[in-house]
Amino acid sequence: MPFSRSGGACALACCLLTSPAALAVPATETSTTLAELSVEGGGPAGGGSLTVPSVAEQRRAVNSTVGSVAFVDADAFKNSYANTLRDVLKDTPGVFVQERYGQELRLSIRGSGIARGFHLRGIELLQDGIPLNFADGSGDFYQVDPLSLRSAEVYKGGNALTFGATTLGGAVNFVTPTAYTAFAPNIFRVDGGSFGTIRENVQMSRIEGPVDALINATITNSDGYRSHETQRTQNFNANVGYKIAPGIETRFYAGIYLTDQKLPGTLSLSDALNNPRLANPSAITGNQSRKVQTERLANRTAFELDVGRLDVDSWVIHKNLYHPIFQVIDQDGLTYGISPHWSGTFDVAGFRNDTILGLRAFAGVNQANQFVNIAGRSGAQTVNALQSASNYEAYGENRFWFLPDVALMTGLKAFSSNRTFSNKGGLPASPAARFGNVTYEGVNPKVGLLWQPLPDIQVFGDVTRSRDVPDFSDLAQMNTLGVTFVPLQAQRAWTYEAGTRGRIDRLTWDVTLYRADIRDELINFAINPGLNIPAATFNAPRTVHQGVEAAVSVEVLRDLTGLGDTLNVAQVWTHNDFRFVNDPTFGNNRIAGIPQDVLRTIVTYTQPGGFYLAPSIDWVPQGAFADHANSLKVPGYALFNVRTGIDFANGISLFLDARNLADARYVSDISVVTNAATVAGGPVAFYPGNGRSVFGGVRASF
């Protein structure tokens, strides 16, 4: 579906939606904010509606979770060049997000998919509470447009049970605005800067009686920091809500996402640090690229009942991928599902009780073909495979307030997931390797305590069970014989966490300590990262992931000049300790791919008149290991950044976003190998980070 069609729809909607209203919102940096607990299921209030509550209600629902969570208001990144999920989540402790090139990045929470060198595993992505992942659990980042978001909700590990997710990493829910929650009825924006970058965005929304509608469209063009990194993305999101009757509302979502991204590939460590703008020669000769066309339709219908509320979600996602790398990967897939879930509050023997119950059934089929890559074109076919996945899940979570300020949380999820693979092409070792059928089943419990001595202070502790089912990138592995089905075990873990979050006067904090004891962890290593061949996956018998997730913010000065201005200092620290445990090959080595400590410091000066200045430092004291043998580690680094701008009362906003001002040379991400010492000349496994860049923009809101 060419973008010109959606662009025509956007233009038509722009002509129909005409009702200006002034709005100017001051820019702020991300900080941990708490409010009184509320229970999902309340009616519309404060700018929200039944299907999508107000931003304040969204925040309260997140913070009512017994466990480590985070809430990001889009107000924190709207005055920046927010192009990827790193720009959305970089201030969230425990979330590791590093760019590779363009919009391709590594997203890991608590070491989920720690050594995976491409895409996503171990985290469920949702948009407006409805899954974005494909039926086999794999996920992409390309269809999440930061300029289309109103907030982001991070549920780490088993705390994502509220959506039915129980993977090691948890879930991230990206909430798009409706006409009730949008910053303004009309928003027009243009920004750009380094590397030939230009981006245009338009958003319009209206409310007419029982109907509300919003459209958002973004077009981005960039040459990229490295050679052979040109990208063009075109994203269109829309939603329409209708209040059928008092207490009944339905909302339809539609999205079209087009990505055309050239791939620069990985480099040697020397080139990554000294010649970072180079592309891998094989990326150029193979004209490696990634072209994705995705269409998404979804619906949420909400019923306000005498006790609680019932939401029924349904969705369908179509994805077409043309991906010349070591071979041309040509896939066409469809994912569809339905999920009813009920939430409510009622008394049990005079005590408050909050309950969530849900079902999810979703499935999909993917035609996965591969061809010889002839300079980016398809040659002889090498793989003709059909991948089918189905999932059936039932889950529940309960918070019983046996004291006014103490709640016992219990939860449970039962699931059955099937993966079927059939390959009619290629030359696998045996006919059995052409076909695979495996079903994963299990029950994941959760138990925890929440103590809330004051409305803005919480202390919690919990134990959760997680299971990560392999996706087809794990199960259908490339080797010298072609594509072979490898029936891996599901990854299982017990995670223990304790933490506190809250606010006292000028101090805000969010601190969690956790440990996950893992069996059969799905670990990757690159067969030949220089040629961009997908990594192989194996089950590590025993591993442990543990760490600290901390964010502290202090308003150190107030009313500096008598104008009501403030100076705020925030520190984000993520400590990662991920290890093998008595592994027959790797002993107690660190699992490669993610650095041990990641720190971010932000100093923010704001004036009530709309001016702000926010310098920041991203610091990785020691780089990550490049191999599981721990024979090679990349250098640490520090990046100096500054963001400034002004919001005028008439709705016009200007911003400047400068990054890596010292032009530091560093490794942003790694395609992990088993033992770098055995690779002649060293592995070609490193993604260089972007050099100095400056972006600026103007936004009109009315």
UniProtKB/TrEMBL annotation:
Transferase is among the record's keywords: no
Domain named TonB-dependent receptor-like beta-barrel: residues: 218-661
Entry keywords, A to Z: Cell outer membrane, Membrane, Signal, TonB box, Transmembrane, Transmembrane beta strand, Transport
InterPro entries per the UniProt record, alphabetical: Beta-barrel_TonB, Beta-barrel_TonB_sf, Plug_dom, Plug_dom_sf, TonB-dep_rcpt-like
Domain of life per record: Bacteria
Subcellular location: Cell outer membrane
Gene3D superfamilies attached to this UniProt entry: TonB-dependent receptor, beta-barrel domain, TonB-dependent receptor, plug domain
Membrane topology (UniProt): Multi-pass membrane protein
Annotated signal peptide: 1-24
Similarity annotation: Belongs to the TonB-dependent receptor family.
PANTHER family, per the entry: TONB-DEPENDENT OUTER MEMBRANE RECEPTOR, TONB-DEPENDENT RECEPTOR YNCD-RELATED
The protein's name in its UniProt record: Fe(3+) dicitrate transport protein FecA
Highest classification ranks of the organism: Bacteria, Pseudomonadati, Pseudomonadota, Alphaproteobacteria, Hyphomicrobiales
Gene behind this protein: fecA
